[in-house]
């Protein structure tokens, strides 16, 4: 998936600054709970890091994960990818108005990469904003999710450009709207939800965190190495070619963003768990 891809791109350059190999270890299961738990229990020496996404917050709130926000020390955020609403290229749903109207007649089948993922949350938040109705088809990752839409097995789905770029470029799925403040450079003719009168801004963030208790000087070294890597022409080009928008936040700002996300999600826990 895109978390794995972006980490590999970033680490290949950060290795130069750190002077040692970075090994990417995928620990699948539980909607990322297993991998997140593994890192929170690791020795806080800077040698075991977490690819931290919004699932870390939602797993605490929705899945009762044994860790908390304080179980990690955010190092930096490197990407924010706004949600986009997708339909099959041949769908008779041509606009967000069409989607909302049709879903209120009969709930639309909405494909997600898994229960409690950011794309699933986006669908539930969209329902709260608009009254659109969905039945959810939870798959085993972003690649499978978009294939379900392209193949006509699901009618709609929230994703990100990075998660759907190849199928969009192949003309197999269409983008109806973007959940950001401004239009996307990738599809400038597609409106934002705000332009359509829907106050809906939401997206997938990706960052790096260390286990709680990691010394501040170690966090500083990691943050600088990763920031330098993110600003290298090599990483910028590879991120752009992969449809990954670069958005940097330092350790403190990323920590504040996580807290804000947690507070927002927690305030809607009753809605999200229905």
Structure report:
- The structure is a single chain.
- The chain has eleven helices and nine strands.
- It has helices at 2-18, 33-40, 55-62, 96-105, 118-130, 142-150, 161-169, 216-230, 233-241, 251-267, 269-272; strands spanning 50-53, 72-82, 84-88, 108-112, 134-138, 156-159, 173-178, 203-211, 246-249.
- α1 crosses α8 (216-230) and α1 packs antiparallel against α9.
- It has two domains: 2-81 and 203-272, Bordetella uptake gene, domain 1 (D-Maltodextrin-Binding Protein, domain 2, 3-Layer(aba) Sandwich), CATH 3.40.190.150; 84-196, Periplasmic binding protein-like II (D-Maltodextrin-Binding Protein, domain 2, 3-Layer(aba) Sandwich), CATH 3.40.190.
- The protein is α+β, with helices and mostly antiparallel strands and 274 residues long.
- The protein has a four-stranded antiparallel sheet, with helices on both faces.
- The two termini are 28 Å apart.
- α5 (118-130) links the parallel β4 (108-112) and β5 (134-138).
- It is globular and about 55 Å long.
- The mean pLDDT is 93.
